[in-house]
Prior knowledge:
By secondary structure, the protein is an all-alpha fold. It has a domain at about 20-55. Helices cover about 60% and strands about 0% of the residues. The protein is built from three helices and no strands. It has helices at about 5-10, 20-35, 40-55. The protein is extended, with a radius of gyration of 16 Å. It starts with a helix and ends in an 11-residue tail after the last helix.
Amino acid sequence: MSGEEKKSEKNTKKQIxxxxxxxxxAELMQWAEDDFRSVNGQIEYLLTECVKxxxxxxxxxxxxxxxx
Length: 68
């Protein structure tokens, strides 16, 4: 696979159905508005940050917040 093909593959976005409670959606919508993003963009941003955090800090949760 060439560099162009790898870059194109990396930039391809997958569509997935996502069910959220209306209260969670409302919170995400407000947060997205505060950050000048769409709700979809906000969800993608938050998931990206979570993945970066997990890669940096490892699989185990050392912060004791109950998420790992």
